[in-house]
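Figure 6 in text form: structure in, sequence out.
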């Protein structure tokens, strides 16, 4: 089976959630490369540097120390402007409807999902990525 997602970037401050999401993505067989970042600013540095591989799909947590998911999006938009080729999906434990509304109003965000990541969710995200590509 050929992976449908070239490079998945997972940004989550929880080492356990990061490890579990990466494991689910690997087991799905739908992802060629996985980049894991515990701190959003490190992920931002990677994207800004232009070093390969660049993410085609980003799973972004909201509530993180130092730089939260929304601050990451603002910094990314400030650096790249209105166009960004990657698909961003907020993957969070937040049940706050304001977070969901704020995420869905951002031009980079294509979906809002609750943790944990599942293989079924990966397949759904593959379809979302295919439509956006």
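Output sequence:
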């Amino acid at each position: 089976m050929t992976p449908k997602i070239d490079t998945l970037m997972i940004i989550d401050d929880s080492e356990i959630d990061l490890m579990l999401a990466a494991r689910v993505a690997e087991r799905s067989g739908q992802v060629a490369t996985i980049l894991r970042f515990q701190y959003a600013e490190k992920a931002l540095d990677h994207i800004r540097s232009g070093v390969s591989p660049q993410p085609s799909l980003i799973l972004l947590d909201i509530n993180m120390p130092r730089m939260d998911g929304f601050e990451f999006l603002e910094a990314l938009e400030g650096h790249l402007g209105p166009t960004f080729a990657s698909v961003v999906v907020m993957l969070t434990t937040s049940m706050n409807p304001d977070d969901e509304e704020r995420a869905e109003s951002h031009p980079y965000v294509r979906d809002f999902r609750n943790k944990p990541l599942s293989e079924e969710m990966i397949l759904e995200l593959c379809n979302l990525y295919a439509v956006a590509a």
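Caption detail: The chain has one domain: 5-65+83-120.
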